[in-house]
Request: fold
Amino acid sequence: MNSLAQRLRQRTWPAHRQVEATAFVRALLRGALDRPSYCLLLASLHPIYAALEAALRQHAGHARVAAVYQPALEREPALREDLAVLHGDDWRDTLSPQPEAVEYAAHLETLARVAPHLLPAHAYVRYLGDLSGGQAVQRAVARSLGLNGGVGTRFYDFGPPGAAAALAQGLRAGLDRLAPAEADHEAIVQEAEQAFARHARLFAELEVARARLSPA
Reply:
């Protein structure tokens, strides 16, 4: 049987590619988002990370969560910092996350209460994406928004060279140490597939908002 990390990669790869092909993500990757659209992305990611990271901390001692809990992965503080730099200290009052982001955060809060063993699926989807493509996105965002020295792009900063690769390796190894039963493996994979579907819906909403925010 493939390891859990291998199974997650294989089963979610088609959904991953579909998300990467959305108009909003393509614009992000090529550095074509303007500041309002990018800030709306960050404001929509914020409740997702806040809920995920609160849940992971809450269950850090849980036998089926502990192996994937790495405080160095946490992104919520960096999101707050970037939003304050790029939008202003009033970002909480003037930026509203997209409905799918609010629903996603609520789902994570529900998992924390009733099914914490499924939280690793969301750690896989969010953090491995950040770790594998974050540096390229950071460069694209910095170039398009005229940012220098990491200011406004702390979300993608995982530390010195090599740190992101080490964190990714640690997360994959942690997933494989969970060693749940076959039925639990399948439940985690299905939850990850659903997480990608949530992201596809979120990026569709963000693309509609981008068209509204961007000048004709």
